[in-house]
Amino acid sequence: MTGTVFDPRDLLAEARLGVLATIKANGMPQLSPVTPYYDRDADVVYVSIRAGLAKTANLRRDPRAVIEVTRDDRWAWATAEGSVTLTGPGSDPQSPEVEALVDYYRAAAGEHPDWDEYRAAMVSDQRILMALSVEKVYGQQLR
């Protein structure tokens, strides 16, 4: 596009589907589709994940991760690399760990129709909030 400058952070901010790459014990990447939310002010990408999954075990062992997002028309992509912190899972629907997931949901999707139901699901699903502090971001717009 003539006259416009592509900023991969703009694409990170608008994307609601991405691929999370973590590092398996054998050094190979493990890829998972995720719903990222990018907080531009904090320069952090948030994702809700579950305890007991490969990506969660990988991040507990090695907290480095990469998230890639692609524009809906597939003519632009952005990648964010960084270190991850994990919050949760919470054992009580009113716990700070669950409250962090409520904040994530509000930022990513708005208000939930039933917060009590959401909070209970976060506990029963053993949900964890992953926060990737962006250390490097890059991408390309092809059209």
Structural class: alpha+beta
Which percent band covers the strand fraction?
35-45%
Looking at CATH, the homologous superfamily of the domain at 8-85 and 127-138 is Electron Transport, Fmn-binding Protein, Chain A
Oligomer: single chain
Which CATH class of the domain at 8-85 and 127-138 applies here?
Mainly Beta
CATH topology name of the domain at 8-85 and 127-138: Pnp Oxidase, Chain A
Count of individual beta strands: 7
What characterizes the major β-sheet? Answer: 7 strands, antiparallel
Distance between the termini: 6 Å
Strand order of the largest sheet: 2-1-5-6-7-4-3
Count every helix, treating DSSP H or I runs of 4 or more residues as helices. 4
Rg of Cα set: 16 Å
The CATH architecture of the domain at 8-85 and 127-138 comes to Roll
Query: What's the average pLDDT?
Result: 95
Task: State the shape.
Answer: globular
Helix content: 25-40%
Low-pLDDT residue intervals, each spanning 5 or more residues: none
Q: Return the string of H and E elements.
A: HEEEEHEEHHE
Write the layout of secondary structure elements.
Layout lengths: L7 H7 L3 E6 L5 E6 L2 E3 L4 E7 L3 H8 L2 E7 L5 E12 L8 H14 L5 H10 L2 E15 L2
Antiparallel strand pairs: 1-2, 1-5, 3-4, 4-7, 5-6, 6-7
Walkthrough of the structure:
Pfam families: PNPOx_N. Residues 9-139 form the Pyridoxamine 5'-phosphate oxidase N-terminal domain. One of its GO terms (molecular function) is oxidoreductase activity, acting on the CH-CH group of donors. This protein is globular. The longest helix has 14 residues, at 96-109. The protein has 143 residues and is of the alpha+beta class. The chain has a domain at 8-85 and 127-138: Pnp Oxidase, Chain A. The protein has helices spanning 8-14, 54-61, 96-109, 115-124; strands at residues 18-23, 29-34, 37-39, 44-50, 64-70, 76-87, 127-141. A hairpin with a 4-residue loop joins β3 and β4.
